[in-house]
Specification:
Layout lengths: L6 H19 L6 H8 L4 H7 L2 H21 L7 H18 L1 H7 L18 H6 L1 H19 L8 H20 L8 H17 L4 H19 L9
Helix pairs in contact: 1-2, 1-3, 1-4, 4-5, 4-6, 4-8, 5-8, 5-9, 5-10, 5-11, 8-9, 9-10, 10-11
Protein name: TetR family transcriptional regulator
GO molecular function: DNA-binding transcription factor activity; transcription cis-regulatory region binding
Keywords: DNA-binding, Transcription, Transcription regulation
Length: about 240
Protein backbone atom coordinates (compact mmCIF):
# COMPACT_ATOMS: atom_id res chain seq x y z
CA UNK A 1 0.00 0.00 0.00
CA UNK A 2 1.39 3.40 -0.94
CA UNK A 3 1.85 5.88 1.92
CA UNK A 4 -0.97 8.31 2.54
CA UNK A 5 -0.01 11.80 1.38
CA UNK A 6 0.60 14.36 4.13
CA UNK A 7 -1.96 17.14 4.56
CA UNK A 8 0.51 19.84 3.48
CA UNK A 9 1.39 17.83 0.38
CA UNK A 10 -2.26 17.57 -0.60
CA UNK A 11 -2.80 21.28 0.00
CA UNK A 12 0.22 22.18 -2.13
CA UNK A 13 -0.88 19.81 -4.88
CA UNK A 14 -4.36 21.36 -4.88
CA UNK A 15 -2.91 24.85 -5.33
CA UNK A 16 -0.58 23.69 -8.10
CA UNK A 17 -3.44 21.87 -9.82
CA UNK A 18 -5.59 24.99 -9.55
CA UNK A 19 -2.90 26.99 -11.32
CA UNK A 20 -2.64 24.35 -14.07
CA UNK A 21 -6.41 24.39 -14.58
CA UNK A 22 -6.38 28.17 -14.81
CA UNK A 23 -3.51 28.20 -17.30
CA UNK A 24 -5.08 25.54 -19.50
CA UNK A 25 -8.79 26.30 -19.34
CA UNK A 26 -9.39 29.64 -17.67
CA UNK A 27 -11.29 30.58 -14.50
CA UNK A 28 -14.41 28.56 -15.36
CA UNK A 29 -12.34 25.38 -14.89
CA UNK A 30 -11.53 26.20 -11.27
CA UNK A 31 -14.20 24.03 -9.65
CA UNK A 32 -13.89 21.78 -6.59
CA UNK A 33 -14.92 18.68 -8.54
CA UNK A 34 -12.43 19.25 -11.37
CA UNK A 35 -9.70 20.20 -8.95
CA UNK A 36 -10.19 17.05 -6.86
CA UNK A 37 -10.12 14.89 -9.99
CA UNK A 38 -6.91 16.56 -11.13
CA UNK A 39 -5.18 15.70 -7.86
CA UNK A 40 -6.83 12.33 -7.33
CA UNK A 41 -8.60 13.12 -4.07
CA UNK A 42 -12.20 13.50 -3.01
CA UNK A 43 -14.03 16.80 -3.43
CA UNK A 44 -14.19 17.01 0.36
CA UNK A 45 -10.39 17.47 0.40
CA UNK A 46 -10.83 20.96 -1.04
CA UNK A 47 -13.08 21.93 1.86
CA UNK A 48 -10.94 20.09 4.42
CA UNK A 49 -7.80 22.00 3.45
CA UNK A 50 -9.28 25.38 2.52
CA UNK A 51 -12.74 25.53 4.03
CA UNK A 52 -14.12 26.50 0.64
CA UNK A 53 -13.25 27.81 -2.79
CA UNK A 54 -12.82 31.40 -1.58
CA UNK A 55 -9.80 30.45 0.54
CA UNK A 56 -8.41 28.38 -2.32
CA UNK A 57 -8.60 31.41 -4.61
CA UNK A 58 -6.69 33.41 -1.98
CA UNK A 59 -4.00 30.71 -1.90
CA UNK A 60 -3.72 30.79 -5.69
CA UNK A 61 -3.31 34.58 -5.52
CA UNK A 62 -0.57 34.21 -2.93
CA UNK A 63 1.20 31.69 -5.14
CA UNK A 64 0.97 34.13 -8.04
CA UNK A 65 2.55 36.91 -5.99
CA UNK A 66 5.35 34.58 -4.89
CA UNK A 67 6.06 33.60 -8.50
CA UNK A 68 6.09 37.26 -9.52
CA UNK A 69 8.42 38.16 -6.65
CA UNK A 70 10.81 35.36 -7.61
CA UNK A 71 10.89 36.59 -11.22
CA UNK A 72 11.53 40.19 -10.15
CA UNK A 73 14.28 39.10 -7.76
CA UNK A 74 16.24 37.80 -10.74
CA UNK A 75 16.63 41.34 -12.08
CA UNK A 76 19.08 42.34 -9.36
CA UNK A 77 20.43 45.84 -8.82
CA UNK A 78 22.83 48.00 -10.80
CA UNK A 79 24.23 51.47 -10.17
CA UNK A 80 21.34 52.89 -12.23
CA UNK A 81 18.09 52.55 -10.25
CA UNK A 82 15.95 53.95 -13.06
CA UNK A 83 17.34 51.35 -15.47
CA UNK A 84 16.45 48.77 -12.82
CA UNK A 85 12.87 50.05 -12.81
CA UNK A 86 12.70 49.54 -16.58
CA UNK A 87 14.14 46.04 -16.16
CA UNK A 88 11.61 45.23 -13.46
CA UNK A 89 8.83 46.46 -15.72
CA UNK A 90 9.98 44.25 -18.58
CA UNK A 91 10.25 41.22 -16.27
CA UNK A 92 6.84 41.91 -14.73
CA UNK A 93 5.30 42.15 -18.17
CA UNK A 94 6.91 38.87 -19.22
CA UNK A 95 5.72 37.00 -16.14
CA UNK A 96 2.12 38.14 -16.58
CA UNK A 97 2.19 37.45 -20.32
CA UNK A 98 3.30 33.86 -19.68
CA UNK A 99 0.52 33.11 -17.17
CA UNK A 100 -2.29 35.61 -17.78
CA UNK A 101 -5.01 33.52 -16.15
CA UNK A 102 -3.03 33.06 -12.94
CA UNK A 103 -2.27 36.76 -12.64
CA UNK A 104 -5.83 37.78 -13.48
CA UNK A 105 -6.78 35.90 -10.31
CA UNK A 106 -3.75 37.20 -8.40
CA UNK A 107 -4.69 40.83 -9.07
CA UNK A 108 -8.41 40.34 -8.53
CA UNK A 109 -9.33 40.86 -12.17
CA UNK A 110 -10.86 37.41 -12.42
CA UNK A 111 -13.25 35.77 -9.96
CA UNK A 112 -13.47 31.99 -10.50
CA UNK A 113 -16.88 30.79 -9.41
CA UNK A 114 -17.64 34.31 -8.21
CA UNK A 115 -14.76 34.16 -5.70
CA UNK A 116 -12.35 37.06 -5.94
CA UNK A 117 -8.96 37.12 -4.19
CA UNK A 118 -8.74 39.21 -1.03
CA UNK A 119 -6.34 42.10 -1.67
CA UNK A 120 -4.85 44.80 0.54
CA UNK A 121 -3.67 48.38 0.11
CA UNK A 122 0.09 48.01 -0.14
CA UNK A 123 0.64 51.76 0.21
CA UNK A 124 -0.40 51.64 3.89
CA UNK A 125 1.38 49.99 6.83
CA UNK A 126 -1.80 48.12 7.77
CA UNK A 127 -2.29 46.78 4.28
CA UNK A 128 1.34 45.71 3.98
CA UNK A 129 1.10 43.79 7.24
CA UNK A 130 -1.94 41.87 5.95
CA UNK A 131 -0.52 40.93 2.55
CA UNK A 132 3.00 39.59 2.92
CA UNK A 133 3.21 37.84 -0.45
CA UNK A 134 1.92 40.85 -2.36
CA UNK A 135 4.31 43.07 -0.44
CA UNK A 136 7.27 40.88 -1.41
CA UNK A 137 6.49 41.42 -5.08
CA UNK A 138 5.73 45.14 -4.68
CA UNK A 139 8.88 45.63 -2.59
CA UNK A 140 11.12 45.17 -5.65
CA UNK A 141 9.55 48.24 -7.27
CA UNK A 142 9.58 50.13 -3.97
CA UNK A 143 13.28 49.43 -3.44
CA UNK A 144 14.23 50.64 -6.91
CA UNK A 145 12.07 53.74 -6.44
CA UNK A 146 13.66 54.45 -3.07
CA UNK A 147 17.11 54.18 -4.65
CA UNK A 148 16.09 56.53 -7.47
CA UNK A 149 14.99 59.09 -4.87
CA UNK A 150 18.21 58.69 -2.89
CA UNK A 151 20.27 59.13 -6.08
CA UNK A 152 18.47 62.38 -6.90
CA UNK A 153 16.87 60.94 -10.02
CA UNK A 154 13.38 61.26 -8.51
CA UNK A 155 12.12 64.05 -6.28
CA UNK A 156 11.79 63.33 -2.54
CA UNK A 157 8.52 61.48 -2.02
CA UNK A 158 6.92 58.63 -0.14
CA UNK A 159 8.56 55.65 -1.84
CA UNK A 160 5.47 53.46 -1.53
CA UNK A 161 3.19 56.02 -3.15
CA UNK A 162 5.69 56.81 -5.91
CA UNK A 163 6.19 53.08 -6.57
CA UNK A 164 2.42 52.63 -6.67
CA UNK A 165 2.25 55.23 -9.46
CA UNK A 166 4.83 53.29 -11.44
CA UNK A 167 3.03 50.02 -10.74
CA UNK A 168 -0.29 51.51 -11.84
CA UNK A 169 1.15 52.61 -15.17
CA UNK A 170 2.91 49.29 -15.70
CA UNK A 171 -0.09 47.15 -14.83
CA UNK A 172 -2.34 49.30 -16.98
CA UNK A 173 -0.08 48.61 -19.94
CA UNK A 174 0.08 44.89 -19.19
CA UNK A 175 -3.69 44.62 -18.87
CA UNK A 176 -4.38 46.47 -22.11
CA UNK A 177 -1.68 44.55 -23.97
CA UNK A 178 -3.18 41.24 -22.81
CA UNK A 179 -6.52 42.37 -24.27
CA UNK A 180 -4.88 42.91 -27.66
CA UNK A 181 -5.01 46.71 -27.69
CA UNK A 182 -1.34 47.15 -28.60
CA UNK A 183 -1.07 44.65 -31.43
CA UNK A 184 0.44 41.17 -31.62
CA UNK A 185 3.67 39.97 -30.11
CA UNK A 186 5.83 42.48 -28.25
CA UNK A 187 5.50 45.55 -30.43
CA UNK A 188 3.80 47.48 -27.62
CA UNK A 189 7.00 47.39 -25.59
CA UNK A 190 8.84 49.85 -27.83
CA UNK A 191 5.79 51.85 -28.87
CA UNK A 192 4.05 52.14 -25.50
CA UNK A 193 5.80 50.64 -22.47
CA UNK A 194 9.23 52.26 -22.81
CA UNK A 195 7.87 55.74 -23.69
CA UNK A 196 5.39 55.37 -20.81
CA UNK A 197 8.25 54.54 -18.46
CA UNK A 198 10.19 57.60 -19.59
CA UNK A 199 7.13 59.80 -19.09
CA UNK A 200 6.61 58.40 -15.59
CA UNK A 201 10.29 58.84 -14.67
CA UNK A 202 10.25 62.46 -15.86
CA UNK A 203 7.03 63.07 -13.95
CA UNK A 204 8.72 61.80 -10.80
CA UNK A 205 11.67 64.15 -11.28
CA UNK A 206 14.08 62.65 -13.82
CA UNK A 207 15.14 64.28 -17.09
CA UNK A 208 14.16 63.01 -20.52
CA UNK A 209 17.78 62.37 -21.48
CA UNK A 210 18.69 60.47 -18.33
CA UNK A 211 15.50 58.43 -18.40
CA UNK A 212 16.13 57.59 -22.06
CA UNK A 213 19.65 56.41 -21.31
CA UNK A 214 18.35 54.27 -18.48
CA UNK A 215 15.76 52.74 -20.79
CA UNK A 216 18.53 51.83 -23.25
CA UNK A 217 20.65 50.34 -20.46
CA UNK A 218 17.68 48.21 -19.41
CA UNK A 219 17.16 47.10 -23.01
CA UNK A 220 20.78 45.96 -23.21
CA UNK A 221 20.47 44.15 -19.87
CA UNK A 222 17.34 42.36 -21.11
CA UNK A 223 19.14 41.21 -24.25
CA UNK A 224 22.03 39.92 -22.15
CA UNK A 225 19.68 38.03 -19.84
CA UNK A 226 17.50 36.48 -22.53
CA UNK A 227 19.94 36.21 -25.43
CA UNK A 228 17.15 37.30 -27.75
CA UNK A 229 16.30 40.82 -28.88
CA UNK A 230 12.70 39.97 -29.67
CA UNK A 231 10.10 42.00 -31.51
CA UNK A 232 10.01 44.53 -28.73
CA UNK A 233 13.67 45.37 -29.26
CA UNK A 234 13.59 46.62 -32.79
CA UNK A 235 15.89 49.52 -33.40
Amino acid sequence: MSPRPRANDVKTRLVEAAIRLLDENGPEALQARKLAAEVGVSTMAVYTHFGGMAALVDEVARAGFLRLSAALAEVGETDDPVADIFSLARTYRQAVAEQPQLFAVTFGQSAPGGKRATLSDLTTAEGREAAQEGLEAFAHIVRATERAIAAGRFRPADEYQAAAQLWSALHGFVTLEASGHFGPGEQGIDHILIPLGITMAVGLGDTVDRAGRSAEAARAAWRARTGNAGQGDNE
